[in-house]
Amino acid sequence: MMLMSGLGLLSAGALAAPSAQASPTRPQAPRGPLPAEPAGAAPALLFFDEFDGEAGSAPDPAKWQVATARETIKNPVFWDRPENMGQYRDDRNHVFVDGNSNLVIRATRNDDGKYVSGKVQSPWRGGIGTTWEARIKLNCLTAGCWPAWWLSNNDDPKVGGEIDLMEWYGNGEWPSGTTVHANPWGTSYATHPYPVDSDWHTWRVTWNEQGLYFWQDYAPGKKPYFEVPAFSIEEWPFNNPGYTMFPVLNLAVAGSGGGDPAGGDYPAEMLVDWVRVF
Fold first, then answer.
1. Left, alpha or beta for 26 (phi > 0: left; psi -120 to 50: alpha)?
2. Given 75, 80, 130, 175, which residue has the most CB atoms within 10 angstroms?
3. pLDDT at 33
4. Interval 207-250: pLDDT, tens
5. Over the chain, what HEC string results?
6. Residue 1: its pLDDT value, please?
7. What percent of the chain has a predicted confidence (pLDDT) above 90?
8. Average pLDDT value for the chain
9. pTM of the entire structure?
10. Are 233 and 187 in contact (CB under 8 A)?
11. Phi, psi dihedrals of residue 258, rounded to the nearest 5°
């Protein structure tokens, strides 16, 4: 979810958002070896959350920081302007655990016509040689909504890097799918349109020395629907020594990706059953 923005606010720590949304174009068919399937026992989890808290409670603050405001956009188009975008809030109406082992991120329309929703990111970071996945249900495929499951890096504003495992756009113009951004400006990327629906799905990426491999509903032997070989796009940062990323989940309203929310059905929700990294 590239934003070309200044800083948004988190309830703990600062949220650094990367760059502008690029117009999708599909890269050349990548080549390279598929990642080896793990054998035997399940791999040890490096980070996980099953969202097993009490109904109505906040997500675990040791694992998640909740945004308190929407990012401001540099050179905004109409729906990116602060007066037209929905805002993020850290409250239990918009970001909460439902008591059924789900994180709920909810978007609402207030009586004054303003929109509020939520975003979480983790302080935990992982590097190359990892697999990241989340099980997600989107009850928010409506005009104005912009849900995403992604990985970010905010160490150096000149380097950046972002992995959008799943993104859906309520503007009615951009195809849903998966995008890898190599810089913070939206000028070096690889993208792959992929259908997104309202069923439960697991979205996975394996990040290794050979590149990035993406699956929906992974099963042993299943081939990835999208592969991005290492260094196949300019300014590739993902093999840099010490480079790490952190997970982000959000449901935005409006913005360039959401578009006009007036015709949408609200409240709308993004449900997350679990997040795992190994």
1. beta
2. 80
3. 54
4. 999 999 999 999 999 999 999 999 999 999 999 999 999 999 99
5. CCCCECEEEECCCEEECCCCCCCCCCCCCCCCCCCCCCCCCCCCCCEEECCCCCCCECCCCCCCEEEEECCCECCCCHHHCCCCCCEECCCCCCEEECCCCCEEEEEEECCCCCEEEEEEECCCCEECCEEEEEEEEEECCCCCEEEEEEEECCCCCCCCCEEEEEECCCCCCCCCEEEEECCCCCCCEEEEECCCCCCCEEEEEEEECCEEEEEECCCCCCCCCEEEECCCCCCCCCCCCCCEEEEEEEEEECHHHHCCCCCCCCCEEEEEEEEEEC
6. 77
7. 78
8. 89
9. 0.88
10. no
11. -85, -35
Task: Report how far residue 95's alpha carbon sits from residue 59's, in angstroms, rounded to the nearest whole number.
Answer: 8
Q: Which two tokens mark 79?
A: 């729906």
Q: How far apart are CA 122 and CA 216, in angstroms?
A: 22
The bridge status of strand 145-152 relative to strand 7-10 is unpaired
Encoded tokens for 60? 């675990």
In degrees, to the nearest 5, what angle opens at C-alpha 65 toward C-alphas 103 and 207? Answer: 80
Q: Which residues pair with 192 in a beta bridge?
A: 178
Q: Is the pLDDT of residue 149 over 80?
A: yes
Q: Are 92 and 103 in contact (CB under 8 A)?
A: no
The whole-angstrom separation of Cα 123 and Cα 60 is 11
Q: 31 CB contacts (<8 Å, ≥6 apart)?
A: 229
Write the pLDDT tens digit of every residue in 34-60.
555 555 667 899 999 999 999 999 999
pLDDT tops 90 at residue 196: yes
Domains of the chain by start residue, with CATH = 7-20+45-277 (2.60.120.200)
